[in-house]
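Operator note (shift B, R.M.): manual run for Sporulation and spore germination protein requested after the automated queue skipped it. Running by hand, logging everything below so the morning shift can see what happened. Input copied straight from the record, untouched. If output looks odd, do not overwrite the archive copy; leave it for review.
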Amino acid sequence: MSRRPASLVPALLIALAALAGCASVPESSPVQVLRQVGGGEDALVPPGPVAGSNPLDLVRDFVFASGSSTERHGAARRFLSADAEGWDDSAGLTVLDGQFDTVPAPGAASPSSDITTIRIRGTAIGRLTSSGSFEPVQALFQQDVTVVRRDGQWRISELPPGVVVPLSVFRDNYKPVRTWFVDPVRRLVVADVRHVPSVPARAQSARVMELLLAGPSGALTGAAVSLLPPGAQLRSNLTTSDDGAVIVDLTRLGDLDESSRMLLAAQVVLSLSEVNVGRVRLLADGEPLLPDRQDLTREDVAGLSAEIEPGADVPGLVVAGGRVRQLSGPEPSAPLPGALGDGTFDVESAASTVDGKRLAAVAQVGGQRTLLVGNGAAGGVAAVPLTAGTMTRPSWTPTGGEVWTVLDSAVVARVLVDNTAPPRTGRVNADDLAALGPIQDLRLSRDGMRVVAVVGGGLHTGAVARTIDGEVAIRNVRRLRSDDLGAVVAADWRSTESIVAITRNPEMLVGQVTVDGLVVQQIVSNNLTAPLTAVAAAANRPLWVTDQTGVWSFGGGDQAAWRQVLAGAPDAVPLYPG
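Run finished. Output pasted below as returned.
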């Protein structure tokens, strides 16, 4: 079992070409995703209005210029008349998909007059909040702005509060970063994706600290906490020492024990590493936060990350023909030893822990489904007191102490597994999910903080909120890119920042979506025969999907089509540990 270094962002190996200088995924052809590390210098300010522009072009150019937030959207303000100087650009940012129109609004005056109304219309995919988090809401969008002609030139004289930009412009002007907070139960740090302006680069560190001091985003509210208390603040602006360390001097931290100080240090150091800060000198009221460590790097705190990736020596598996088999490793397609591989049970799906030491399987017994749990290496399993008409494929928490499944498309059940007592069953409060429709698939993220679920054909995420007394609930449920994905069949976590889904949409049989729903990307479907029925994903491993002929693998890079790894198995369910 291996922990992923906090600075490493798993590459999306579905590339046809790399998009230079961009940390996100483009809207069209698949690319390899690389997180931009260098801060860079300030970008060129977008040009102002073109002399002689007509109202339609003026408003369109204004929308593009609005992507630059420098100097309170100074570039966009050059398109405004004196009447619109009070424009409130802080009232939120709406992101449109790749296409938008600027057209005369119904009933607008003729452009031959000196005043008219232009309508911006398109499809909104969500909003950027003041906390830098993206909240997905896909819906038709329209907004009217008034333009006037003064001294022969058109300018915007009246417009609603807030900023509107297309996705491509947003990605050019904002950088995704992971801010880090704390799982209060396991006492480990977890990532929370935010977006900060790309320029000025020198201001990114200060912005990241603002986000840390403000606490987790709405997506993780109730699930993650910060060890920076509500009254905490910076004693002074961030500075750089003569030897290159960034000095962060905090105050009003309250009483923190040694482990809490280390977790707080991990929050700050890992978050600042996202904006190219290599070394942090972390102080509390002018004194070292950790007395025995003057400076910290991300390597010093990476071990506190909650995300656990499967070890390279833990093979992927597949359930086919009622048996569990290896699908990777030294003996591909070889049945596992014991009852799950020898045909004793009619297995429908399975999951192993990230270290491969435990295995859970759903088996059909007399028309009902039963959950089996046991030792993955030895092959011994036993039924737990859990049966239903249907069960989704199991999913393990990162520690391997719990396995989850959904009973009869409605009840999320968890089984607690340890070495000192028989497995114990419990229930997850998933009312917010179940209210949306039948739960067809559910997977825990490999940091244990989120679920991705297919509910009523839609792709949803939710936060896993735990209490000290053991209660568990799924909160903050959000649907991701419904118009683009269509009817979703199944999904899996590629990383804590990205999800791979298979759909019934012929234009996007396989797609990858960022965890906040900002970007959806089509993955090539060459050689696949619809409909697809199962998918498995993990960082730094090929994608697996099952179509009508068997299991196929796609590793990206120069690979232009899917390659079959198991033929004649249309019922196969591939799985990676987790």
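Quick read of the result: The longest helix spans residues 258-273. The chain has three domains: 55-173, 174-304, 317-575.
Leaving this for review. - R.M.
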